[in-house]
């Protein structure tokens, strides 16, 4: 993640990990230089599923991973995402509206 302002810059890294909750072991990891998590959910979920060697997987992530395209990719691959929705209006605009967002 590179940011700059007034001639200064900062370089940083974003480490992603996937943990098998049954065995409490890291099953996948990745280091990126992207400063946010929104584009990381499906990639890490696929890596975790492949490492564990299962067809079914449920993923938990924090609100920072909420992005409609990533959730859709997981659902299409048979990976269930049970992460919380984004509460920030700007971030919700980038995601999908889940069924719970509608009153019946």
Detail the topology: elements first, then pairings:
Layout: E1 2-5, E2 8-11, E3 14-20, E4 25-32, H1 41-52, E5 57-59, H2 68-76, E6 79-81, H3 89-92
Parallel strand pairs: 5-6
Antiparallel strand pairs: 1-2, 3-4
Quick description:
The chain has 104 residues and is α+β, with helices and mostly antiparallel strands. Helices cover 24% and strands 28% of the residues. It is built from three helices and six strands.
What is the ordering of alpha helices and beta strands? EEEEHEHEH
Average pLDDT reading: 82
Shape type: globular
Helix/strand/pairing category: alpha+beta
Number of distinct helices: 3
β-strand amount: 25-35%
According to DSSP, the number of beta strands is 6
Radius of gyration equals 16 Å
Helix residue percentage: 10-25%
Explain what you see.
- With 104 residues, this protein is an alpha+beta fold.
- The chain is built from three helices and six strands.
- It has helices at residues 41-52, 68-76, 89-92; strands at 2-5, 8-11, 14-20, 25-32, 57-59, 79-81.
- The chain has a two-stranded antiparallel ribbon. A two-stranded antiparallel ribbon has the order 3-4.
- Strand 3 (14-20) and strand 4 (25-32) form a beta hairpin.
- It starts with a strand and ends in a 12-residue tail after the last helix.
């Amino acid at each position: 993640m590179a940011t700059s302002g007034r001639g200064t810059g900062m370089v940083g890294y974003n480490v992603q990990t996937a943990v098998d909750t049954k065995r409490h072991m890291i099953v996948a990891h990745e280091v990126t230089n992207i400063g946010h998590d929104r584009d990381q959910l499906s990639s890490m979920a696929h890596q975790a599923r492949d490492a564990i060697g299962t067809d079914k997987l449920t993923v938990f992530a924090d609100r920072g991973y909420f992005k409609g395209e990533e959730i859709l990719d997981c659902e299409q691959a048979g990976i269930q995402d049970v992460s919380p929705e984004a509460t920030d209006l700007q971030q919700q605009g980038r995601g999908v509206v889940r069924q719970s967002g509608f009153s019946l």
